[in-house]
Design goal:
It is built from two helices and two strands. By secondary structure, it is mostly helical. Helix 1 packs antiparallel against helix 2.
Amino acid sequence: MTDSISPMGPNVAPLDPLKGPAGTGPAAGPPPAEGERSFKEILKSSIEDVNRLQQEADQVLEKFTHGEATDDQVMVAFRKAQISFEALLQIRNKLVQAFESIQQMRI
């Protein structure tokens, strides 16, 4: 009879290399503390903000074509959208660079 006994004692669950301790799913860090956001949430929020600014710029342009907005308002809206998009693009480039660095590491 072969029971699944851990070499550390009967009360310690065996480790599964794909699931982490005792089949709890992929090993993950501790959940974020109250008030903290995960990287995924921050990134998603940033993408949504960039999208919102681009949509606002489109709306200001539409208002401009109907004579409801000034050319200054259009320039400011498009500049905000451009700066936020360029910042998000730089973040993306840094993430890709970090991923490539990790791929090149020897284990």
